[in-house]
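Supplementary notes for students who missed Thursday's class. We covered one full example, reproduced here. Read the sequence, then the structure, then the short commentary at the end.
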Amino acid sequence: MTGLQKYYYHPEDFSITGIKVPSITEDHVENYPSVVDRFFTKYFYRKACSNPQPYKVFFHSNRICMISLAPEHEALKVGVKSITFDIGNTNRSQNQVKGKGKKGGMILQHDSAIAIVTDKNDVTYKVPSCIQGKLIEVNERVVKDVSLLGKEGDGYIAVVLPKPEHCDDIKSSLMTQEQYLSTLI
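Structure (token representation):
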């Protein structure tokens, strides 16, 4: 090495437990897991009723939960016509949350409606919150573009924050991905 070359960056091979870690600048990983796959655990919920539809709950380690329609939901199969957060006596999009403690968030029970989805056959589905907690936000983008509802991550309907002491009970009341897939067979 001559002159300044010794100060230039020279990449080194780095491995964890014997597996080579790819360079973020040089190597391209084709099937790199998405943010949702890396940081959220997927759970599923079916409301006990005459026509139980599946819903997906993405549970983050920081307790934040994103609620969405499961891919097998009837509205996604037929095609979604519209979604509204006005559930009759309350408009969930008017939810105002402030501060670190999320003051002002609407308190939800696991069967509280957070939205109404209408499919292309004009069948309506009340989307339950699936978990008990505070409504932090609703995804206004799905109102403008209903095609987002089928996309994992972007197609969430609402974000709900459960209390820390309820997290274990909530997780045990929901179906894991393996349990849910076994119900489809």
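Commentary. The mean pLDDT is 87. The CA atoms of residues 31 and 37 lie 11 Å apart. If anything here is unclear, bring it to office hours.
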